[in-house]
Amino acid sequence: MPASFSAQFIIFGLHINKIKNLNQKNMAELTPEHAKSYIEANKDRFLNELFELLRIPSVSADSKFKGDVRQAADYVKAALLKAGADLAEVCETEGHPVVYGEKMIDPSLPTVLVYGHYDVQPADPYELWDSPPFEPVVKDGKIYARGACDDKGQMYMHIKAFETMSKNGGAPYNLKFMIEGEEEIGSENLAVFVEQNKEKLNADLILISDTSIISTEHPSITVGLRGLSYVEIEVTGPNRDLHSGVYGGAVANPINTLCEMIASLKDENNHITIPGFYDKVEELSTAQRDAINKAPFDLSEYKRELGIKDIEGEAGYSTLERTGIRPTLDVNGIWGGYIGEGAKTVLPSKAYAKISMRLVPHQINDEITELFTKHFESIAPDSVTVKVTPHHGGDGVVVPTDSIGYKAAEKAFEDAWGKTPIPTRDGGSIPIVSMFQEVLGLDSILMGFGLDDDAIHSPNEKYGVFNFLKGIETIVRFHQRFAEMKK
Amino acid sequence: MPASFSAQFIIFGLHINKIKNLNQKNMAELTPEHAKSYIEANKDRFLNELFELLRIPSVSADSKFKGDVRQAADYVKAALLKAGADLAEVCETEGHPVVYGEKMIDPSLPTVLVYGHYDVQPADPYELWDSPPFEPVVKDGKIYARGACDDKGQMYMHIKAFETMSKNGGAPYNLKFMIEGEEEIGSENLAVFVEQNKEKLNADLILISDTSIISTEHPSITVGLRGLSYVEIEVTGPNRDLHSGVYGGAVANPINTLCEMIASLKDENNHITIPGFYDKVEELSTAQRDAINKAPFDLSEYKRELGIKDIEGEAGYSTLERTGIRPTLDVNGIWGGYIGEGAKTVLPSKAYAKISMRLVPHQINDEITELFTKHFESIAPDSVTVKVTPHHGGDGVVVPTDSIGYKAAEKAFEDAWGKTPIPTRDGGSIPIVSMFQEVLGLDSILMGFGLDDDAIHSPNEKYGVFNFLKGIETIVRFHQRFAEMKK
């Protein structure tokens, strides 16, 4: 709604008049139309820059890409400086570095800290990609590449929104950027960095684009994220691989045992059986559940798009509830025995699994990891030994919808999309959001522009060119709206 | 018992007098002492020849070793000719070749067909070997190498027993050799070869060394082998890998589902739940079970040697029964999702397993494979699709202990080891034994010399030098005893 915005904008301009003449003048010039035409005029360059970043295989999980991860950090630093930052630095950590950048207009003005990540998920299995994961291409208006959506594409929108403001009179307040390289492996070193740089990271709000909208027809803002507990399991039977003909039937097979143990983690209603697992799970009111179930959702389209005959989940809950407000348990990987071509009659010594649990608000990652470990050890028969190793994790998050930040984001969507965004609870996890709350005392606004079928973490990850450009526009509007509402 | 043997041998010598003077004369010269000293005098060469064969990584399951498998076939052909065969040939099949060789003394004399295999199991995981699998070494009197026992070492004993006879007057009757290259992958092309060469393979008996003795203190002859049904499972959930945060809890995870399906294949008593699975299983009498349980077995030593706190198996049966007379079901391999370093929150599209069932006599491989497939498909929830692909298999075998072949083997052990061998039922499977019975109408004598802890199919496979040399001696005695008893 550009008209009402303009009116409010003038008021804003008058206020900052006292502070900085140049800004006032230039900001007044950056009308929504002006921002839009700047983005339109520069879109090919914006995309080409993103493609350069997408070509760097910055897979944080796999140490063989260590140099590439570093190269991506350097690229982000340079991009921040080019976009108008006064300062940008690649900050060392025990693992991959954090890129920090800032544009300080005036310390007395509000400050927004943008968070994103430049690392990506592993791209394997490579053979399932229609085009190589690190050679971005645009097909049917979508950018195909690992990281196109998660999170290089979404993170880069912020740098280009910053540029759009910088080149057109400057941002309306102070901007800080913290772009990390370990989001896909648990952000452990980011937590240390944040702890050590509380002063530097001081801000009014954190802005993050690493989530999805319902559809381009139904923009939405994420107001809930699930937490995550991720463990790796090792089950050991005999001290060496055995011949299944000689020992089979008399010695526990760790694969069979692991399967039995995994199967026992859910009952016939797909309820998780770990004692205490649901103790802190928030039970929503009928009204709250009704609101969730009002979001547009077409089950037969969902099944068709996934190629499945039927869905499956916890009894008593809808699909939107199962992915939004209920905790889950998934095996993300399993391996053991002979997995090559042909047949081998081995009774293996060891079997392994990677298991993650999505947690809802109030469930604490560390507590759940401990409950899992205790339970898993307790159900192991004497014929095997089990080892549970925690990977990264994080707690769930609920974003209040009555904050200025949320209202500004809502307005920004209304301005750019002509529609009021629907508040949604996402199934995914951004573990650092609860950490930011805890360590910095800051709320985050989760203003993502991906789509659920963008295949993040899958082969053929994509991100719409429309979403990328519209996202930049929306982010510019957010900063203008937030500046205005903070007066 | 050389004394009583000598007496019988003279009678034998008189019998064949009518047939072939030369053979009679020379065989009469090959006393047990003479054979023993020939083996002793040539043992270093015998071992060096075996080592050459062990150095060839003839892994039949993995196509990247195809050339090596061929090289092993050529080696066996050359070794047969050198040992005294009139004819030796590498016979093409649709897969790896069969080596056939023969020494025809006189068509009217008995003929024994020796079966063995020159292919080996995959050697991975390589990192668990104390010395490289294809660089044989002798440590503490054991030959360490993939195939040392299964079956290169045991097969090569027959070639060296043949040489021992050839160089000392000749074998007492016709000998044929059929050494295949696909035993570890199901002998499918051998079945075709046998079907197409019934005439050529005509014999009185098949002699095989691909089994174990209880211990060097307790020689034994295998009189029962379990059959094998081996299937590969593919479980498909969604049509692509998904983000477990976005879809987890609402879409079936094929790994969880596979685990649940595998877990359901056994009940709390470790009884297999496939309908009809036990229908044809022979129930042994108390006397028969008592006989089995009289075999020397030390449970605490068994557990200590395997490094396990407890054993696990079908309720109501002893360890010897579980591995000898009861059918089993083992997962030999499982894989799916992300199995690399670190964590990936993927809900995979597919999960896989290799499952084998050991069958007891009267259970038919094809029937069991069909029962498994039908059952597995029937328990699959609508949220996934499953595909069951049969690998190789074979039926169980019972060897009659009142045949001339068995009696000759028993005598040969008595001659060479000074002890009457114990008839045992082995847990393993040699699927071709029932095929030989069916297609050629021939019984097999399973005169193996391995030990259960030889780690066949495992890292650090070994074979005793003692077993190798004593085996050659015993095989020579078998041929002499069988010739004598067939008079």
Automatic annotation (TrEMBL), chains A, B:
<dbReference type="InterPro" id="IPR002933">
    <property type="entry name" value="Peptidase_M20"/>
</dbReference>
<keyword id="KW-0378">Hydrolase</keyword>
<dbReference type="InterPro" id="IPR011650">
    <property type="entry name" value="Peptidase_M20_dimer"/>
</dbReference>
<dbReference type="GO" id="GO:0046872">
    <property type="term" value="F:metal ion binding"/>
</dbReference>
<dbReference type="Pfam" id="PF07687">
    <property type="entry name" value="M20_dimer"/>
</dbReference>
<dbReference type="GO" id="GO:0008233">
    <property type="term" value="F:peptidase activity"/>
</dbReference>
<feature type="domain" description="Peptidase M20 dimerisation">
    <location>
        <begin position="224"/>
        <end position="382"/>
    </location>
</feature>
<keyword id="KW-0645">Protease</keyword>
<dbReference type="InterPro" id="IPR051458">
    <property type="entry name" value="Cyt/Met_Dipeptidase"/>
</dbReference>
<dbReference type="Pfam" id="PF01546">
    <property type="entry name" value="Peptidase_M20"/>
</dbReference>
<keyword id="KW-0479">Metal-binding</keyword>
<protein>
    <recommendedName>
        <fullName>Peptidase M20 dimerisation domain-containing protein</fullName>
    </recommendedName>
</protein>
<dbReference type="GO" id="GO:0006508">
    <property type="term" value="P:proteolysis"/>
</dbReference>
